[in-house]
Amino acid sequence: MPADDAITSRKVKTSRLTMHVLEGPGTASDRPVLFVHGNVSSGSFFRRELLSLPAGFRGLAPDLRSYGKTEALPIDATRGLRDWADDLHSLIEALGLHQGPKLVLLGWSVGGAVVLQYAVDHPEHVAGLVLEAPMSPYGFGGTRDLVGTPCFPDFAGSGGAGVNPDFLARLGRKDRSEEVPTTPRNIMRAFYFKPPFRLSEEEEERALDSTFEMTLGDGHYPGSAATSENWPGFAPGMQGTNNAISPKYCNVSSFAQTQPQPKVLWLRGSDDQIVSDTSLFDMSFLGQIGAVPGWPGASVCPPQPMVGQMRAVLDAYRAKGGQYEERVLADCGHSPHLEKPEAFDAALRQFLQSL
Question: Which among 164, 140, 182, 173 is positioned nearest to 310, based on CA atoms?
Fold first, then answer.
């Protein structure tokens, strides 16, 4: 594998904003592979993957709006994921990537839904999609069935108000301690990965460095709050990250009708605690297990079937002639590329060479 100094870092002024991007080795004639990160992270989480792509492919890992070193413009949650998808398109145009071989987009967690939105809007540019532990196509929280029906008309239980306030305060203080479960370090260890897996000391500090670069506030993470008469007492606001991923505004299920149809690889860990049909970040599941009081019961607020929702959309895509493969990595949490790098690389390599 090339040395870490083979990665270049630069800022690119696009038609929408200035974006920071990490680039791996390769040439302009290589097929671009864009690695799109998820929530509370950045492109830096993909440094190893930028150096491990097979010949003929060149990796790029941008920081999304308000994350990492990219310009921190407010996020219009009412557009769902389109601020991020449009920003990504502006970067692709600024770098001229749309003029060469068709792209491969790899999206992790929230990034998985972002690349689905991109494929809905610009399918002619996409050769393949890799969905790594992807968020449901119907957003995060507040829905009850495989077609994304809301538990309440106002999508209560989703949005920016659902973030733990102590975790948010510690993010703002750039708290590197291990003193309580809600420190950023402990949240990462407990939920990004399946314990007892841990990054190396150097990798963990770098991950925290990049996490602390994110912008906090109503227009950014986690977003503005809104109250609700429905359990658990809050609903999505109109600005910021966690409102943009609320099902009130986020719905990329139309990917099932996309033409032309890029190939899809869906990779996930068997023990993911974030994107799961029993997610520990889903208010309805937390209510079911007694962690949030007043839960009105499964007939009103069943846990969101996140994995089932993704499978239903991809099955509909297949029924229209599209191709997808689902791979589940055993003994793995929310970050297969970090927890199971050899299995992840083998699956990604096979997929890339099949295009």
Answer: 140
Which residue, 90, 239, 88, is CA-closest to 160? Answer: 239
Find the distance separating the first CA and the last CA of the chain, reported in whole Å.
23
The two three-digit tokens of residue 148, written as one number = 């994304």
Cβ atoms of 146 and 305 closer than 8 Å: yes
List per-residue pLDDT tens for the chain, 355 residues long.
Answer: 556 889 999 999 999 999 999 999 999 899 999 999 999 999 999 999 999 999 999 999 999 999 999 999 999 999 999 999 999 999 999 999 999 999 999 999 999 999 999 999 999 999 999 999 999 999 999 999 999 999 999 999 999 999 999 999 999 999 999 999 999 999 999 999 999 999 999 999 999 999 999 999 999 999 999 999 999 999 999 999 999 999 999 999 999 999 999 999 999 999 999 999 999 999 999 999 999 999 999 999 999 999 999 999 999 999 999 999 999 999 999 999 999 999 999 999 999 999 9
Can you tell me the distance from the alpha carbon of 47 to that of 93, in angstroms, rounded to the nearest whole number? 23
Beta bridge partners of 13: 18
Confidence (pTM): 0.97
Nearest to 189 by CA among 210, 214, 208: 208
Which long-range contacts (C-beta less than 8 Å, at least 24 apart) are formed by 219-222?
Answer: 219/66, 219/74, 219/75, 220/66, 220/72, 220/74, 220/75, 221/39, 221/40, 221/66, 221/163, 221/171, 222/160, 222/161, 222/162, 222/163, 222/168
CA dihedral (354, 252, 332, 177) positive or negative: positive
Number of separate domains in the chain? 1
The runs of H, that is alpha helices, within 77-183 are 82-94, 110-121, 165-172
Residue 349 is part of a domain; what is its CATH number?
3.40.50.1820
Domain that holds residue 270: 4-353
User: With the C-alpha atoms ordered 242, 243, 247, 250, is the resulting torsion angle positive or negative?
Assistant: negative
